[in-house]
Amino acid sequence: MIELSRDESVFTLTMTAGENRWNTEFVRAIAAALDEVEASDGPAALVTTSSSEKFFSNGLDLAWVQTPADHPAGGDYQVFGEEFMALMGRFITLPVPTLCAINGHAFGAGFMVALCHDVRLMRADRGFLCANEMQLGMRIPKPELALFRHKLPMPTFFETVQLAKRWAAPQAFDAGIIQRTAALESLLYEAQQWAAELAPLAKNRNNFGAQKEALYGENAILNSQHGPAHLLKNSSQFH
Q1: Under 8 Å CB-to-CB from 200, ≥6 apart: which residues?
Q2: Residue 27's domain spans which residues?
Q3: The whole model's pTM is what?
Q4: 105's torsion region: left (phi>0), alpha (psi -120 to 50) or beta?
Q5: 6: how many CB neighbours lie within 10 A of its CB?
Q6: What is the CATH number of the domain that holds 36?
Q7: What one-character DSSP code corresponds to residue 60?
Q8: For helices 80-92 and 142-151, what crossing angle results, to 10°?
Q9: Which residues does 98 contact at the CB level (< 8 Å), separation at least 6?
Q10: How far is the C-alpha of 4 from the C-alpha of 107, rounded, in Å?
């Protein structure tokens, strides 16, 4: 489901569950990997990617969401919402640089987790980013809307959340969603090399993490009374 490796200062978290759909067990597996990253000392950075050549993450585990009793391997459905949102808030404020190597489609929750990273690289030739809740007849929760609004320029934000636009890599780069594109064969390598360059920023974890909290946490300095990390970590208070 999840593999975590380390090469000197660079951790690589690889999602290995095919389409990498989100349920409670998937959330908890990633949370355990973040525990290991945070338990480390000294300069470090985290790269998140997928083992699939087609999917980075295809969103929620819809079969499990619709009939959780029929899919017990997905875990406790009742706690999913708050645990997932809290994990996203944790990604945003992780006290090391985080890079997302988007090697395939990232839909819904998959797009969301990509945005929770500090920077994003995307496969140049294939794959789309899309917040497809409107297409599924769903509304995007306020904590997730806050995340998208903080991470995206306003025109891009509206097209993404309201019009469910699908962004291929060149358009995503032009729209400010991703920072770099790369061929599939070099995507992970380029992400890891960039991660090694950024890792020294986290030599002082407290300092690096505290500034992220100032950007995205409670009483954030950007755009609203609260930032997306606070909303996500306390999602039951914001509907």
Answers
A1: 9, 43
A2: 2-237
A3: 0.91
A4: beta
A5: 13
A6: 3.90.226.10
A7: B
A8: 20
A9: 45, 46, 47, 48, 91, 116, 117, 118, 119
A10: 23
pLDDT at 222: 57
Cα–Cα dist 94/26, whole Å: 18
Question: What was the pLDDT predicted at 229?
Answer: 82
The candidate with the shortest Cα–Cα distance to 173, out of 159, 190, 152, 188, is 152
CA distance 130 to 184: 19
Instruction: Report how far residue 186's alpha carbon sits from residue 182's, in angstroms, rounded to the nearest whole number.
Output: 6
Crossing angle (nearest 10°) for helices 154-161 and 142-151? 140
Residue keyed to tokens 């029929």? 70
The pLDDT confidence band at residue 225, using thresholds 50, 70 and 90, is low
Give the separation between CA 126 and CA 103, rounded to whole angstroms.
8
If one compares 224 and 120, the residue with the highest pLDDT of the two is 120
> In sequence order, which residues have a C-beta less than 8 Å from that of residue 166 and are 6 or more positions away?
128, 129, 130
**Any idea what DSSP says for residue 218?**
T
Taking a C-beta distance cutoff of 8 angstroms, is the pair 84, 109 a contact? yes
Element (H, E) at 196: helix 184-198
| Number of structural domains found in the chain | 1
